[in-house]
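Hi,

Apologies if this is the wrong queue. I'm a grad student, and the batch job for Cation-transporting ATPase from Ictidomys tridecemlineatus produced an output file that my downstream script rejects. I'm not sure whether the problem is my script or the file. Here is the sequence I used:
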Amino acid sequence: MEEESEKDHRALLNQGEENELEVFGYHTQHLRRALCLIASVLTGGVLQLLFYWRPEWRVWANCTPCPLQEADTVLLRTTDEFQRYIRKKVLCLHLSTLKFPISKNPKDPLVADHHSVINQAVMKPDLKLRCIQVQKIRYVWDYLEKRFQKVGLLEDSNSCYDIHHTFGLGLTSEEQEVRRLVCGPNAIEVEIQPIWKLLVKQQSVKLHNLVEDHNKVQVTILVKDKGLQELESRLLVPGDILILPGKLSLPCDAVLIDGSCVVNEGMLTGESIPVTKTPLPGTENTMPWKCHSLEDYRKHVLFCGTEVIQVKPSGQGPIRAVVLQTGYNTAKGDLVRSILYPRPLNFKLYSDAFKFLVFLACLGVVGFFYALGIYMYHEIPPRDTATMALILLTVTVPPVLPAALTIGIVYAQKRLKKKKIFCISPQRINMCGQINLVCFDKTGTLTEDGLDLWGTVPTANNCFQKVHSFASGKALPWGPLCAAMASCHSLILLDGTIQGDPLDLKMFESTAWKMEDCNVNAYKFGMSDSNTIIKPGPEASQSPVEAIAILRQFPFSSSLQRMSVIAQLAGEHHFRAYLKGAPEMVARFCRPETVPKNFPQELRNYTAQGFRVIALAHKVLKTGKLSDVQRLAREKVESELTFLGLLIMENRLKKETKPVLKELSEARIRTVMITGDNLQTAITVAKNSEMIPPSSRVIIIEASEPEEHIPASLTWQLMENQEMGTGKKEAHVNIGNSSGPEGETGSSYHFAMSGKSYQVIFQHFNSLLPKILVNGTVFARMSPGQKSSLIEEFQKLNYYVGMCGDGANDCGALKMAHAGISLSEQEASVASPFTSKIANIECVPHLIREGRAALVSSFGVFKYLIMYGIIQFIGTLLLYWQLQIFGNYQYLMQDVAITLMVCLTMSSTHAYPKLAPFRPAGQLLSPPLLLSVFLHSCFTCIVQVCAFLYVKQQPWYCEVYRDAECFLANQSNFSSNMSLERNWTRNATLIPGSILSFETTTLWPIVTFNCITVAFIFSKGKPFRKPIYTNYIFSFLLISASGLTIFLLFSDFQDIYQGMEFIPTITSWRVSILVAALTQFCVAFFVEDAILQNRAFWLLIKKVFGFYSKSQYRTWQKKLAEDSTWPPINRTDYASDGKNGFYINKGYENHELVPKEKLKSGDQIKEQHFWTRL
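Support response: The file is valid. Your script probably expects a header line. Output copied below for reference.
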């Protein structure tokens, strides 16, 4: 029974997704609630503040556990490492408020979609449903499944047939009203924060402006039995039929079911290249629509926030799309939610800072009881005793501490913005200071985005023919290869300009053909006006074909590595299919007898020279009817093809690539290439850019899937010895890394592999993966999912990973990395935490430099504030011993004139221009930092205690408040100013807790000089920041504070002494105070600079005592360095050997084909936002 009760009390929300939550049911007890309200009043609101910080305490105090079905309050807990709690009230929606009658018969469904959770969420005959709103998403209670389920979207379990036939004719107006009530409005509303929330107001205004227009779009929908209807986009519901008349900013996510269109997804991906969307086929099967074929389902989905720039009707009526998701469930909604509710970062700095705060608070509590004891011993009135004790309690924890930790990030963000690097996740800037591995995409990142055509290699009679060089200036001769290059692309004609992928554009321009829309010649093909017509241009070679019509397109997919089209040549009555893509992939779909026998060698010949190679193929389709063309499956079109030849393109390095990689290598930051291009090409680029040093060995890893009686195998070969056999389907090369972890160059070998091999290793050789990754440098033919997976595996080895890419296929990896940098032309690109408007990798060292400077600044400010609290605490403790305290103006001078100014300006020191070959400390609880705080605390304690005791030994000393006559009699010894002497007569009799004393006058300048000293020595410049004197404002403030303190120490003015509540002392004593402060400065500076900041000293300590890094990659490096059998060369291993710890990874699923919920990782949770949909 207890187990059953626990099951009813707890459930999972968004199971298997990145935002998975545990839900617990609670019922509010009115008596408990009343008692909590009384306690809140009695504690002056302190209890309410605790409940605000700890919502779980509020729920536990006010409620009792109950089954979720009966709960009026739910407590949600994240399932990640942070275990954060959220409290939500359960709301009730009443369908009886709708204006039309609803059947109360439980057997009658409310909506036609039998997959919809709405039918299972409404209680009959009450006609109400229970829901909660979590991070802008609505969830309703499913009485059948006994859990909360998301609404505002069509269920993924719908098949292609369901979407076409259930929603194809539109929803009834009654069903629309039901869905509007249950799902809520199709609106992305961002509340503008009130003016007092200044820290987040600017962001909320920007987000509000970003999404405001989304809620006001006028759209046309198809209503069942009523025809077309215009309405505001906020009234759209999942299942509505959206009519696309032409150019439109999409207000929701929708799946295209009729016609095709071209959209600009730049707002989401940063790429302004037009993307062609094709209709979802009406396949009659029960498979979920996202898995109906190998083709990426995203090619049918129109994402919210993207722009429809061109539509192409199919000839059967207007272009129709079924509304898939609304509001915050959409791609744009996910984007806004990711900004409103960012994933917390598990950075040691913040957790260590909290531990330090707890320590300081405990120190304050000790001081509190110390003060109570002293004042009670002297029988001071309870009110005064409590006041003084509370003052000491608050001295140790500086209130400016949280703001001071972020001020360095603010300065770094401003400096990055000047360098055209924009950031939407500022907390990641500190993490950039710890980056020790950077992954780069190749095309458009390391190499030029625009490719220069080098030539074509046509085939005939199963042999490669003479190369046609574009440098010759001769037109490409007519033939099947020319027809394929002219038609097999995704280019569109928009306002008279051809737009599309740069590669497609270069290829098309090389044919000298031209593109036309709505051509009068279309009747020759029996086509509608919407088809694209390709015709020979004036400079094209003579062709017997007057025109080519592109009838249908199967768009390029990163996972499929190919695209194809169906076209018709003028004068022909049959149709042709043309395909282009990765050579290995294209050869796989061609008839073997049409592929030249020397294909692998020829391919390797070009890729080894760094060329980018594309293969083309074609075939004549057997179907003769145009209507059949629209129904052909992609698998049938892309099979039994005839190989046509190769298109060779030059992929030049950007001029900034080599210097930046050299800079990173010198800084001992490891660099890795993750690309979708050919492995040989990637290796050549890695060598040319010196990512792989010339002296390094390159080891090829080729993995094969298990077959009937043969287990999965892994082959290791040196690149120099590898020969491509005719049976190989893809080139595999092994590459070394130009720098080992943190840049260590001790490793002389590098691994390289393809995405296919990585997938096999991940599945069947998982225990080998860490060994491979610590020296893996080139990963080619990687799909988007594999890129994200690889980043995650690097993170499991305790690398701090940066990722730099420029394409939509990098979005997942950019978000997965600790610091993702998108090279996008659009400042608004939000596919990664950082976006550079300058499209080269110079932004990477800039970001690392600023990250290091921000991190060191955060540590410096934090150490200063810790020491500031301890310095004041020690001084106040000493004064409390005699029932004395610093004066208000004395505190004000230290708090505002020094500490506040230091916190505001200390972090503004710029980053050092050269990257150091080591990283700054990444955690506060490190021996150097702890020892620094401890030693400086000892220094200040010694100086203050000595000054406190030594002043009592002076012949002119007296306890002012006890012996006023002695004090006044001695004033002539201290000051020549007689008016000053007379002024003290009115203060001759003082009460306990007074300010006027020789101890206060002595300790205040020492405490102030201590604060200035630690501010200076904690502002270390090189190697991570520029020298302190380059921070002009900070230097000026330190000099001004020092000068002012010396002036107050040696001045002899009545107004100053009255205002600061000092007592005049003899000049020799003042000089002694200054000498003591200078001595402490010299000792503290020497200890901090020569010992605590001496890296060589700490490395020696580590070596002597045998301390080693606990990072996984360090451990593996040490093990592999001691293993004489590593790396394996020229051998093959099998998964069933049992040696070397190989095993089958049962939990493996293909990243590309399996729903995200099945890919749960044990160490880190993958994000599932809009970028995983794109």
